[in-house]
Design brief:
- The protein has six helices and five strands; from the N terminus they run H-E-E-H-H-H-E-H-E-E-H.
- By secondary structure, it is an alpha+beta fold.
- Helix 3 (57-63) packs across helix 4 and helix 5 (83-92) packs across helix 6.
Length: 126
């Protein structure tokens, strides 16, 4: 997690899409999720607990199910969708902040593009 955090900070980014070998989406890791999990671990640290430098995504999966669910909380639209379509998908999924574009809008397809809630907001203002 610290390596991911450093990668994001060095790149000036707040989120990182993670894709499978076939190009389909598996996670969207927000820097805030890493920070929240590390802070939770530090707050309840006990002897024998894993060092912060050794924490992994699997540790989030095992120890913080809500945070783990958040890195799997994204939506899909097909490649012909408009920004308005992507906005509607985000609005229908309250915890979602990211939309992946695939050929037909299906999760098992390779990702062709990605749009965030921030980009949608910027392009949706009158």
């Amino acid at each position: 997690l610290l390596d991911l955090s450093k990668l994001l900070r060095d790149a000036g980014r707040n989120r990182l899409p993670v894709l499978k070998a076939d190009g389909s989406a598996v996670y969207i890791i927000h820097l805030s999720t890493i920070t929240d999990y590390v802070a939770q671990c530090a707050a309840v640290s006990t002897s024998g607990a894993k060092a912060v430098a050794d924490l992994t995504i699997d540790d989030i999966k095992k120890g913080a199910p809500k945070l783990f669910a958040s890195i799997q909380d994204f939506s899909f639209v097909q490649k012909t969708a408009s920004v308005a379509d992507a906005k509607a998908v985000l609005e229908s999924n309250s915890g979602c902040a990211d939309v992946f574009v695939t050929e037909n809008g299906r999760a098992e397809e390779p990702v062709l593009g990605w749009i965030t809630n921030v980009e949608i907001q910027l392009r949706s203002q009158a």
